[in-house]
Amino acid sequence: MKDIIRPLQSTMFAPAERSNAKQLLESHQELMNDEMLRMISDAMPDVATILSPERQIVYANKALLDLISGSNQDDYLGDRPGELLNCIHAAETPGGCGTTDSCRFCGAVNAIIECQRTRKQVKNECRITSKINNQPVSFDLQATATPFPYSGKQFIVFAVKDISDQKRRRALEKMFFHDVLNTATGLNGMLYVMKEAEDPAQIRVFIEFAEKAANDLVEDILAQRALSAAETGDLKLNIVEYDAAEVMRDVAAYLRHHKIAEGKKIEVAHFDGYLETRCDVQLLKRVLINLVKNALEASYRSDTIKVEAFEDVNRIIFRVSNPGYIPDGVRQQIFQRSFSTKGADRGLGTYSVKLLTTKYLGGEVNFTSDESSGTAFTVCLPAV
Length: 384
Hints:
The protein is of the alpha+beta class. The chain has eleven helices and twelve strands.
């Protein structure tokens, strides 16, 4: 059995107290001896556990045991759900799963707490980032907590279903059709007006706008294709030399005439010297385009979005900043795959930034946000 006896700890959300080893083993043996319970739980196709009032696992069904490749109770007994799933936040505090600041926004622990409070079944979507082979892996889960009074004790049946593929497919499709339809509609409108125009100078202006819209359409398609390939691990890199200042100018030029930039300013900071290195420049541009788009969407008319780059000890750091402030609840979830402030089935913008930066560009992405100085995202890449 794992070290399940821990001293009383403080918490930033759910209670930190845990059962002692004797209580856990007694509950485990009592449940294991119930043949009918074993038959019903093992027939469930989804991962399911029975939790003690302290949110600790005292029983696991066959689907869970298959998932963790073993049937030894030491593999799960006394863990909380986030600890079993290797959630990146579970080790942030001595109290473990449910006790960190990030846990306030976790659909799983909130479902458990609400179920304990109401004694009714609660279903929540849960975004979790696990560490697998020392690499972060994002999951979208449906968590269901159901009251389970048994032998005078108030247990909870906690089941999770992986809906990552479903959420990803819906988000990709919605984003793709939304962006492409907007661009195609604009292009169609310009072509219609161009057909009615007679002034050659005016026609040339329309042609330039139509060309820009057509390029945007191609870029949208390529961006979606790149993200889909990145998610499946099939993305092939094209490593070339690039000039950081030129990349920033290209990103700004691409977005200055975008609808979301109307009334706003994109400022590329002056860069002294000629900073040049190697990476997949198209991926880098997509990362920066996503960040600038997010900054534009979070800004008001007359706001300025600033794009800059600088060197720092064998690294190149790109920074995108805007005057807006990200609320605490958004900050805690901002890099999770299906989280979005733009409505359901969106939420791949900052997730894709992190995926492409960390997995394919060999860098890291961070951000700061406060009410006085605004928000800044940084992309740090190796200068090789």
